[in-house]
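Lecture notes, continued. The same structure-token format from the folding unit now serves as the input rather than the output. Read the line below as a description of shape only.
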């Protein structure tokens, strides 16, 4: 008897969960790119993006400049930093919760975002991911409320074959993106 045989039969959902996490990562990268592309190209000056503040009592530091009248000035960003992208996982795929963390912790160097399953953040979420299998039996009651907030993206996540994906007509016109 194979000692690993029972272990393989106990965890058939693990490959699906790994695929789901990969798809979540792809969605996060897409939403991060979408947020950056809406901000405009980097390095392009916008009106009010650089403000000069007079620093009279501080010693000269790297990054300080001297104005024409001899007082020290420091360049600071006038535009407030945007909050991280907020992505709401509406349903846990296959009802299997996993720990969610910031995008920069999962992928070093990625734009920061916040993944959550807290439905109370729905009105201000930038994106909502809905797993089809968990809402397909009663989509009108299990989908997020309509109308969606302006600018919010809905992502339809499906990890089933088309023959196991029922009630697809009920999903028509509701989602901006798909993920499989």
């Amino acid at each position: 008897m194979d000692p690993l045989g029972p272990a393989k039969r106990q965890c058939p959902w693990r490959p699906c969960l790994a695929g789901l996490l990969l798809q979540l990562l792809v969605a996060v990268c897409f939403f991060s790119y979408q947020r950056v592309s809406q901000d405009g190209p980097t390095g392009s000056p916008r009106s009010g993006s650089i403000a000069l503040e007079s620093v009279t009592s501080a010693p000269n530091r790297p990054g300080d400049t001297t104005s024409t009248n001899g007082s020290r000035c420091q360049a600071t960003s006038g535009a407030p930093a945007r909050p991280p992208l907020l992505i709401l996982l509406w349903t846990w795929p296959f009802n299997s919760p996993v720990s969610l963390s910031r995008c920069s912790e999962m992928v070093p160097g990625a734009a920061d975002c916040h993944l959550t399953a807290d439905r109370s953040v729905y009105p201000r979420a930038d994106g909502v991911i809905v797993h089809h299998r968990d809402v397909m039996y009663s989509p009108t009651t299990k989908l997020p409320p309509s109308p969606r907030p302006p600018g919010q993206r809905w992502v339809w996540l499906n990890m089933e074959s088309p023959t196991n994906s029922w009630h697809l007509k009920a999903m028509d016109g509701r989602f901006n993106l798909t993920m499989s």
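Point for the exam: The domain at 18-39+81-179 is CATH 3.40.50 (Rossmann fold).
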